[in-house]
Amino acid sequence: MYSSRAPPVDGIYHDESESTASLIDVDGPHVQTVESDFLKQDVQTTTQAERIEREAEEKEKREEEEKKKKKAKAHKVKSSSIRGNTSNPVFLANAAIATVIGAGLSFGAYKQHTKGNLSWELVGLTAGAVGVFGTVDYFVSKWFLQNKFPPK
């Protein structure tokens, strides 16, 4: 057999005495006294204190749920206002412009890449031009939305 194994345990020894937690304390007073203003206290028992604490937690949960519902409702109103403006010419024009410019830039970048002329300088200049155009488009669209085609 193996000589490096530990020898088997002969048995389990119970040297510890029984727990004294369940025994009755005979040395303590048999009658408990309460303060004279006990009935005037708001919380008289631990059960009442636990109930009040539990009710406060439930109230917090309800308030958080109401906040979430209001937030979801506001988000729903915002998304429905976007759907309501799908026939607005400003939104349609911006969608068409973004599509045409995206396709044109992608095709132009592909052509430059196949010719071997695509460089970081060209990409940077194009990105700058797109940024300038986006800024101008933002302010023009904002003017149109405020003056000519207000959203619903």
UniProtKB/TrEMBL annotation:
Cellular component, GO annotation: mitochondrial outer membrane
GO biological process: protein targeting to mitochondrion
Keyword Isomerase appears in the UniProt entry: no
Region described as Disordered: spans on this chain: 1-20, 35-83
InterPro entries assigned: OM14 (IPR039454)
Organism annotation: Penicillium digitatum (Green mold)
Basic and acidic residues biased stretches: 50-67
Full protein name: Dihydrolipoamide acetyltransferase component of pyruvate dehydrogenase
GO molecular function: nascent polypeptide-associated complex binding; transferase activity
Keywords from the named record: Membrane, Pyruvate, Transferase, Transmembrane, Transmembrane helix
Transmembrane segments: 90-110, 122-140
Composition bias, Basic residues: 68-78
Organism taxonomic ancestry: Eukaryota, Fungi, Dikarya, Ascomycota, Pezizomycotina
Superkingdom, natural source: Eukaryota
